[in-house]
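Long-time lurker. I teach an intro course on protein structure, and each term I like to show students one example going from raw sequence to a predicted 3D structure in token notation. This year I'd like something fresh instead of my usual example. Would anyone be willing to generate the tokens for the chain below so I can use it in lecture? Attribution to the forum is fine with me.
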Amino acid sequence: MERLGEPGSDTGSPCGPPVPATGQGPPAVGGSAPGLQCLGEAILTEPMTDTPPPAAKGAAAPPSLLQQLQGLARELPRMLSDRVELLALELQRAAQSLVQIVVLVVAIAILGVTVWLTLWAALVTVLVHAGLPLLAALLLTIAINVVVIALAVARVRRLLPRLQLPATRRHLTVAPDPSPTPETHADDRAS
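-- Reply from a regular --
Happy to contribute to a lecture. Here you go:
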């Protein structure tokens, strides 16, 4: 089907004379080239069909749904195998990293305890040089450490109920408690 403005299409439309088939290029300035009006006419004169254009000879038809599913079934084991292998490699690397982290945390803890003991030894030495008897200086450092331990234990006791996930448990129970206890919210705000 010839279109407007194509070689050999003489429709007498206001879009201008047909373009010569000589391949000499666009019409001269002042000549009428196809514009929006011509484009509109071309669209309006094209017959509308619901059938797709015929496939070119030698072009393969698109695969059917069954063929696509069969192709997916062939590729699925390879895709799963790749992902399982990736998971295994990452788990191996994560395990190696975890071992290194544990070793480093132990080393940090040992060094931290060493620094802590050295700090208290220096404090005892300063107190003894200040005129305090050695026994009194040692008892003072022990008392300070006991107070710090008591504060840490009290804080741990306040944090322990959070490990039971109280808000989640209330929301997941069949008959949730309509009134949460005020101390639960006070504990949440205190931290």
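Some talking points for your students: The first helix runs from residue 36 to 45. The two ends are 80 Å apart (CA to CA).
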